[in-house]
Amino acid sequence: xxxxxxxxxxxxxxxxxxxxxxxxxxxxxxxxxxxxxxxxxxxxxxxxxxxxxxxxxxxxxxxxxxxxxxxxxxxxxxx
Length: 79
Description:
Elements: H1 2-27, H2 32-39, H3 43-50, H4 58-68
Helix pairs in contact: 2-3, 2-4
C-alpha cells in the first residue's frame, strides 16, 4: 500500500509538467509533431509526456525547452 501512495504524487507532477508543455506549445501555435521535430523526439513521446504518462529525462527536458524557446525552469514553475 505504501508504494501506491508514493507513486500518486509523482504522477500528479508529471501531469502538471505535461500540461505546462502543452500550454506553451499551443501559445506558439505548434503541433505535437512540430515540437517533436524541433526537439528531435518522436511525436508519440511528446503526447505521452503531455498526458503525464511518461517521465522525461533531463536531456529530453532540455530538448523540449529549447524547442519551445523557454528556460528549463519555466517548465517547472507550476510543479
